[in-house]
Design goal:
The chain is α+β, with helices and mostly antiparallel strands. Helices cover 38% and strands 36% of the residues. It has five helices and seven strands. Strand 2 and strand 3 form a beta hairpin. The radius of gyration is 17 Å and the shape is globular. The chain starts with 6 loop residues before the first helix and ends with a helix. 26% of the residues are buried. This is Ester cyclase.
Length: 180
């Protein structure tokens, strides 16, 4: 009997670890798991730094999430691998402690959700393509509406809408200041 892990099992382990480092990984962990040309197909509302390719983009996305959500963690429920394609069913958990900024296609600030202090547990399915022991592609299906309801973003109260407008104005000012 061989002691070498099956390539499909290795792909599953790589996919799971690449999810876990979003919550707790150092930049070197991303360099070790993410291909230099890897693409995160979920980068449509994330920070401009997360819209490029490779470990730096994935790390920028992790920093974005960690800034807004204290205690960020992922509970892994199921992992299914077929060759180099891996699906991971998980629950992302955390507490909303800082503004969560989403960005428009051009990289400008789109929406800002001021911190609510609430916790959430949102189900997600992540899909990965693994090549030569590295993540080369990621996409996901998430329960964003469920998460928004748990965090009190939906339906927004008039007071929360006011806080959102103030937070967006502040984030836009900070964004312009960083570009100068």
């Amino acid at each position: 009997m061989s002691t070498t892990p099956h390539p499909t099992a290795q792909a599953g382990d790589i996919a799971v670890r690449s999810i876990q480092i979003m919550a707790d990984g150092e930049r070197s962990d991303f360099d070790a798991l993410i291909h230099p040309e890897a693409r995160n197909l979920e980068d449509v509302v994330g920070p401009p730094g997360g819209r490029t390719r490779g470990p730096a983009a994935f790390y920028a996305t992790a920093q974005w999430l960690r800034t807004a959500f204290e205690g960020l963690s992922y509970e892994i429920h199921h992992v299914v691998a077929d060759g180099n394609l891996v699906a991971v069913n998980s629950t992302m958990k955390g507490r909303h402690v800082a503004p969560f900024v989403t960005y428009a296609v051009d990289g400008s600030v789109d929406t800002v959700f001021p911190p609510t202090g609430r916790t959430f547990a949102a189900t997600q399915s992540h899909w990965f393509r693994i090549e030569d022991g590295l993540v080369v592609e990621h996409w996901a299906n998430r329960d964003d509406l469920g998460q928004a309801k748990e965090l009190g973003w939906v339906p927004p109260t008039p007071a929360y809408l006011f806080r959102m407008a103030r937070a967006k104005s502040h984030a836009k000012k900070n964004s312009r200041a960083k570009k100068m």
